[in-house]
Amino acid sequence: MTTLLNPTIELIEQNPEVKSFIYQQIAEFEHFVTPQTVVAVVARDPRKLALQYETDGREFTREGLKKLYRIAIVLNEGGAKAEAEGVHEDIFEAIRLAKDNLMQKLVAIQDSVVSQQDRIIEINHYLQHPVLH
Length: 133
Description:
Blueprint: H1 7-14, H2 16-26, E1 38-44, H3 50-56, H4 62-66, E2 69-77, E3 80-88, H5 91-113, H6 116-128
Antiparallel strand pairs: 1-2, 2-3
Helix pairs in contact: 2-5
């Protein structure tokens, strides 16, 4: 679906370099997803950040916002959803930022679920039962 209002969608759908880069980036989520997880890369309108930037006191121009790429990566499974955005003048950097931001969220969730004691038990298990080849 391409529109004149959001040419980023066309760039994501039609450019093989961008598609390849997206696949490389989302491959890094392998340890956080299951086969049922739906991964979506979404192009959002950067002009809609104007109110947020204004509220945050960030300097911007409407013309400057038009030049940005705003990319979100969304993981969805069984009603649970995790997402993060990246915004940058370079589409590759926007995709990488979205991936990095989502990875930070996923690691934080994992750290809150897996306790320090669980980690010590796992480490000791591997130390006591070395794998022989």
